[in-house]
Amino acid sequence: MKLKTLYLDDLGVQAQMASFQPESGTREWHVMLHVSPRGEGFEAQLRRIYEAEDLLPQQPGFEGARYILKRYFLSDSTNQQPLMRQEADVALSFIQQQPLDGSKVAVWLYLTSGQHITTQHGAVVAESNGYRHIWRMGYTSSEGDSARQTEVILEQYEQMLQQFGATLADNCIRTWFFVRDVDTQYAGLVRARRENFLREGLTPQTHYIASTGIGGGPAETRALVQMGTYALTGFQPQQQRYLYAKTHLNPTYEYGVTFERGTRLEYGDRSHILISGTASINNRGEVLYVGDIRRQTLRMWENVEMLLREGDMDFHDVMHLVVYLRDTGDYEVVSQMFRERFPDIPTVITLAPVCRPTWLIEMECIAVRENHNPQYPSF
Fold first, then answer.
1. Region 270-280 average pLDDT
2. For residues 357 and 338, what is the distance between their CA atoms, to the nearest angstrom?
3. What does the alpha-carbon distance between residue 120 and residue 161 come to, in Å, rounded to a whole number?
4. Most buried residue among 85, 170, 315, 320 by CB atoms closer than 10 A?
5. How far apart are CA 285 and CA 118, in angstroms?
6. What pLDDT score does 357 carry?
7. Percent residues over pLDDT 70 in the chain
């Protein structure tokens, strides 16, 4: 895995890039684009971001790269999303989670080469070696409260998976739930998800799904919940392993929620780890270091490190970091801490309250490491 930062000075855009490029097979890139504000409004900043996006696949080292996912972090999704371009062959995610570097927009980009990419049943599908990677973003509903909306969007997703001969329990690898006013609306999401999962055969005795549940504003003003998803078909059950780090974290069902701390996927040529939203918590489900942003950050790192270690990886394998803060006043402290420890990993820090008011910070990440296992097809 290689890390590099590209400065597009004319555009005022910084591209933090992580790449996994084996000698043969599919190559992968994770990129965070950051735009300098320059005292400009949203449209001017977005134009420069788009120009950078268009230039990126033309850069050396990106031969054959195609976009799979673009997640835009916006300062005002309701007014900004209508101004953004639509791309039918990319999984697009727009969410109000303001970048805290002073800009109005940042974007996480995921690219691959060597896969056959199509759009099917409203999802972006990347196929290679018998696998289908199914990305679908932006599920919302305007029907009822947060519980009802969660119920509706999960049922819609399950119906979409059926079109691929897939199920939520067997094939969904990762979800993201963005909740408007998370302090009051998250409980409805939790209840509806738990009930849906029970019907789908997801219980403490089986497994749940790696996930992030975090504050975020959908563009649709009546939408209280927005969901993004990643599913996989064509793999054997033993290729997926859930991560627990029980010395540091407890099973989430012990405090009433239903997600896995992380999951490891093993392919013939590499392994992926997808870490769920992780905060400063101990193995009894208690928030640690209430009110202390520095110590919460350190404990959060420790928890993530233990999850990665259980999956036979470490922070050197991490390809991107998404960091969520409750209080904008903590940005300078947190950004300095991340710059000092992870100066080269593509990172974005956004305004997004965590699901417990006393948690000041949360993070998620994706990691990849080379693997040689002829038992499984390559990625």
1. 98
2. 22
3. 11
4. 320
5. 42
6. 96
7. 100
The structure's pTM equals 0.97
Residue 283 has φ and ψ, to the nearest 5°, of -80, 10
Tokens 């997600």 -> residue: 259
**Conformation bin of residue 238: beta by default, left when phi > 0, alpha when psi is -120 to 50:** alpha
Q: What confidence score (pLDDT) does residue 245 get?
A: 98
pLDDT of residue 333: 98
Q: How far apart are CA 161 and CA 275, in angstroms?
A: 23
- Give the confidence band of 374 by pLDDT, cuts at 50, 70, 90: very high
Residue type, position 43, single letter: E
DSSP strand E in 234-354: where?
240-243, 262-266, 270-278, 318-325, 347-351
Beta-strand (E) ranges in the chain?
Answer: 2-8, 13-20, 27-35, 66-74, 91-96, 105-113, 116-120, 123-128, 131-140, 172-179, 210-215, 225-233, 240-243, 262-266, 270-278, 318-325, 347-351, 361-370
pLDDT value at residue 63: 93
Query: H-type helices in 72-217, by residue range?
Result: 77-80, 146-162, 168-171, 182-199
Q: Are 109 and 103 in contact (CB under 8 A)?
A: no
45 band by pLDDT with thresholds 50, 70 and 90: very high
- pLDDT tens-digit series, residues 3-40: 999 999 999 999 999 999 998 999 999 999 999 999 99
Name 240's bridge partners. 265
Provide the pLDDT for residue 116. Answer: 97
The full length of the chain comes to 379
Burial label, 374 (beta-carbon count in 10 A; 0-12, 13-18, 19+): exposed
**Domains annotated on the chain, with CATH:** 1-114 (3.30.1330)
Distance CA 361, CA 184 (A): 18
Quote the crossing angle between the two packed helices 146-162 and 182-199, to the nearest 10°: 40
CA separation for the pair 49, 83 (Å, rounded): 13
